[in-house]
Every structure is written in structure tokens, then in C-alpha cells.
Amino acid sequence: MSEPHRIGTIGLSARIKEDGAELTSLRDREGREFLWQAGPEWPRHAPVLFPIVGRLPGDRLIVDGQSYPLTQHGFARDSRFEWLEKGETRARLVLRDSEESRARFPFAFELELAYEVSEDTLTVTTTVRNPGTVSLPYAVGAHPAFRWPLAEGIAKEAHELRFEGAAPVSACALEGGFLKGERSVPAVGEMLELSPELFAGDALVFGGIGEGAVRFEAPGAEAPSLRVSWQGFRDLGVWSKPQGAPFLCIEPWAGTTPPLGWDGEFADKPGNEHLSPGEARFYVWTVSVAG
């Protein structure tokens, strides 16, 4: 395995590895690291989710009545991508279907990740292409984990997510990794209060929230803030481990885990994306550092 490739400007730098096309570092001009460094609490940084987000019943995918093994969040995060570009401020990688992938997901696909740094912003563009002859059903998502607290000496409870627009007052509830009903969340106006206890019931899933942006910040504290925006994605997950892991995941998705009790053909899974043969679709998320 080669070393992660670095891209950057004076204001911001990022590192990306070929395994999983995963972002492994995000540092500002002062060298402050904002990405979770894959500690024992959770061994990942920012996995790419494809061709599912969440789980399937029995960890199996059904296509035309045939069962294929497919575990949580899919196989892209554990696959080795091919480098397409290694520039100073931009890098691109691609994963194409193979004999190995078709044993778990019997569809032709191309999944491209492009990372680009400009001033104080990292832009990540995910492109899904269908080079096959039949419709491609899938879900795709980002799963970046950011340092929480944003700086030493600040309580986790001093942080908040500030939505650009009214914050949602409820989220989809999860049972065993599947959607079941709704749960209320501590939102006031544009602000969602954060605490480890908020994730005792697993992730917050804001299904169908649409395109938007949030600011992850600790008001009044001497700490930078992060603004995360997304386009093309229509769902949002927010997650941490309630046992005190020092990270917060802000996750734009196109597709979610299915409802509890659903079990059917993958093409019929609620929330899936569908690409016609020869079609491509683009999903963009950004993170900017301020302060």
C-alpha cells in the first residue's frame, strides 16, 4: 500500500489513501488536525459508503430472487481504488466493478472520488456511472468523522450544529440498524445541541432533508468552526459513539438504511438511487475551516 497522497494550499491540506479512496487528514494553516485519526474507538477516518448506506436484512442483497452477501455500508470502503490523478491541489480515484464486486453486487458501475482543495475549503465530488446495460440501483454516502471537541479544553456539550435554515426537530429512529418511527432532537431555531447522550439510540438520521449546510462550532470558545455543505445528497446522518469517542460524523447521503421489517428485491428498496445505462450522477460535499 502506498502512502496517502497530500493535496493542499497555504490555508488547508488533505491526505487521501487508495484503500477506500478515504480521506485520512484535514489540517489548517496552523497544522491543526480536524479529522478523527482512526483510534481504537472506531478504526476509520471518513469511509465512502457504496452501494448501500446502512444495512440490509440478514446482510444479504436480493437481485432477481438470488441472494448475495453484502455487509453494512457496502464494500467500497474496504476496496482498493485506482489513482486517476495525483496533483498538488486535486486528486481523483476510481473503483470499477470486478469479478470480486459482482459476487456481492451483480451490477456494472464506476465510482469516482475527486478531492480538491481551494483556499480553506475541501470539495469532494462523488460520481456514480452506469456502464452496464440494465438500470443500476444503489445508495451512496460520505462518512467523515471530525474532531470533537474542536480544540482541547472545550466540553463536548459546548458544541452545536447550526443549520442554514431551521434545524429539524425530529430524526428517524433506529432499531437494530433499521428505521423505525421518529425521535425528537434538542433543536431550537437553527441550532441542534450536541452531547454524547444524544447518540445513545444510535445515529440521527434526517431522511429527505435535501441539500443544505451546517456549521459545527463551539460558540464563545477559542476554537475554529467547520462548515459542511452538500449538493446532490438528500439525506443526512449525524453520529458518534455515546461512550465518549472524540469525534462527530456529519454524513451526507443519497439513500438510507431500510425500514425495520422490509425485506425484498434490492431494486425496490425504499430510498435507492437508480441510474439508466450510460447515465452518470454527481454528489458533492465540502468542508471549510473558519477561525
Q: Could you give the topology of this structure?
A:
Layout: E1 5-8, E2 12-16, E3 23-28, E4 48-49, E5 60-63, E6 66-69, E7 82-86, E8 90-96, H1 99-102, E9 110-118, E10 121-129, E11 136-138, E12 140-142, E13 145-147, E14 160-163, E15 170-175, E16 178-184, E17 187-188, E18 191-193, E19 204-206, E20 212-217, E21 225-231, E22 235-239, E23 247-254, E24 273-275, E25 280-290
Antiparallel strand pairs: 1-2, 2-3, 4-12, 5-6, 7-8, 8-9, 9-10, 10-25, 11-24, 12-23, 13-23, 14-18, 14-20, 15-16, 17-18, 19-22, 20-21, 21-25, 22-23
Description of the molecule:
Strands 7-8-9-10-25-21-20-14-18-17 form a ten-stranded antiparallel beta sheet, with no helix packed on it. Strands 4, 12, 13, 19, 22 and 23 form a six-stranded antiparallel beta sheet that branches. Strands 1-2-3 form a three-stranded antiparallel beta sheet, with no helix packed on it. Helix content is 1%, strand content 44%. The model has no long low-confidence stretch (mean pLDDT 96). It is mostly beta strands. The chain starts with a strand and ends with a strand. The radius of gyration is 18 Å and the shape is globular.
